[in-house]
Amino acid sequence: MTAALRFDPIRLPPECERLRKEVRAFLAEEIAAGTFDPNKPNRDDTDAPEFSRRVGAKGWLGMTWPKKYGGQERSFLERYVVTEEMRVANAPTRRFFVADRQSGPVLLKYAPEHVKMDILPRICRGELCFAIGMSEPNSGSDLFAAKTRATKTDGGYLINGSKIWTSSAHIADYMIAIFRTSPPTKENRRHGLTQFLVKMKQPGIQVNPIGQITGQYEFNEVVFTDYFVPDDHVLGEIDGAWKQATSELAYERSGPERFLETYYVLTELVRAVGDKPDTRSAEGIGRLVAQLHTMRRMSVSVAGMLQAGKEPVVEASIVKDIGTVWEQQLPHRVRDLAAFVEETASNRETLEKQLEFAIRTAPKLTIQGGTTEVLRGIIARGLGLR
Amino acid sequence: MAESENIVVETAEKIFADLADAQTINSDKTGSWKAPLWQALSEAGLPLAWVPDDLGGSGASLAEGFGVLNAAGRFAIAVPLAETMLAGWLLAQAKIASPDGEMTVIPGSPKDRITLNADGSLSGRARGVPFAKAAKHVAVLAHGNNGGISIALVDAAKGRIEAGLNVGYDNSDTVTLDKVEPITIKPAPKGFDQATLMLMGGVVRSLQIAGALEAMLDISVRYSNERVAFEKKISKFQAVQHNLARLAGESAAALAAATSAADAIANATSFDDAVYLEAASAKIRCAEAAEKGGAIAHQVHGAIGFTIEHILHRYSLRALAWRDDFGSESHWAVELGKRVAARGADELWPLVASR
Question: Which residues in chain A are closer than 8 Å to B336, comparing Cβ atoms?
Fold first, then answer.
């Protein structure tokens, strides 16, 4: 066989189910206390610093990391459960999500020890928000076209240029960014980029909010003007960021957040059709549930492979491709199925409001964190086509 | 996959590779490949893999049998292996011993119903029964007039069989029983009903579809790396690459759904809501994948894949045909949707997350 894709039927171990109960109880308390409304994914301010600290206090941030950095040394499958329960509840995870999923693991792998000791425990406590500085005004999916320069100077680097579409940069304490330290070579156009840890909220960094079609302001332009980054904030090999990017992508691409972003409209649809749906509604819901269940099983399978120390890059890309296309179509399918729901359905207004927001959100889902086109290119490479 | 599971599956794969080569079968107009294949499978104990030793079978585990059927899908096996395994499994539920030779199962659709008459005979019509024409015996699930479910072994010659073909050109026949005396009949275990049989049959078909999609992905990738058009291999065109990436996604989804459902059944003590979700989802998602994935495989192959000489149709049409057996995806979607609605909106996520 050309392509030995593996999706073993991995089950979450018993400790995950105990943890799931704890997370649900915690979220129920937070909802009861008014921290957030699970029916309102479109709240104006998704930043919740106090909530972030309480999640940290539970030990649910950096939970797979070594204890000496504030982690819990728990499994990726346990982290998976926390992530999916938070997502399904529409909990305000913006402040900690990127640090926990992506930035922390990069620091663990590439940062000097004293930097790790300084920053990782604070991520675990829910005190730090991270942004990711990848895209630039003229380099989005083509990551290796990045031009923002890091010029060597005494004890560090001076950064000049800008990043764009940077989620949470307006609230972030740190950013992990790639900057150009050398020009690309003829043999390797990916050469010459270096990964840096950047402290935000400093002179030399200007964050300009960019309005989104949902009405929110979650992403930004970040302009660097002679901004100084010390040598010990270089992450990994100088000019070699391209070697470091790929293995983390499996974590970023296969999680439950890659198919659950618009899940809330499915819950409300089930509520709206009632306990005895007509054939059309029943069939529509049945298909959506079958598709959802299948993606989750694929996603859990990838999480299990990651836990086992494998690097299922192609499988992870497949999960994100199928998952994001699904969550993008979901609001439209729910809208179709809700077309004949009784005017008197008790949650009609909630569903309509949610659909409005989900339909406005949908276009970004197949763009953020690696477009469908990029993913399919990676899958094609895995199949031996390029 | 456990070590022993590998051995059973590897045995099956070796027989398939030796005696069920797609190209050889496709060129053989006489059907002379069938008898040696069936004989080898029988000698290896595979058709009665799910029948315990004391009931005449080889006593393999459910997981091993599921692995064999996934492999059978990869080879688009067109002898009643899956049907005989399912029949043996059904009979074993009622502790009825399995005879040698090909078997099939009725009903093969949730819409049909066989009745156990007061005099102990069986009546009813079952449509779309796979390989009934080739079967020597039929395992029957029958409804008594008191609502009880019985399982029976019937001599195929006692029923009236009208031969038909499914979309994949395999026999899909109508079997009519008119007061037929069963060879053996026993009550089904408590809680076992027609839906249980349909879910099990649906998972069997899901595994076969997933296998066929794996094969379609494999031959499509290979073909795209050989075929030259516009002065380059068609695998170098981004449009073709992206189509194949989508086929890989459909193949992956089918494999994940089918093997998850098989694992759920292999480890279940009853067919509860969770197993229902797994099995129904597998049939729904695999059927969708058969449509989407098969279309891409054909698109990549162009006209050559539309010829009877090419092997692609052995996989693509069978995968489409298998959608219809033991309840179509539409049937299962309605049933699953009704269950989800009856449980209520706030119980949906807990159900999904329980798997």
Answer: 285-286, 289-290
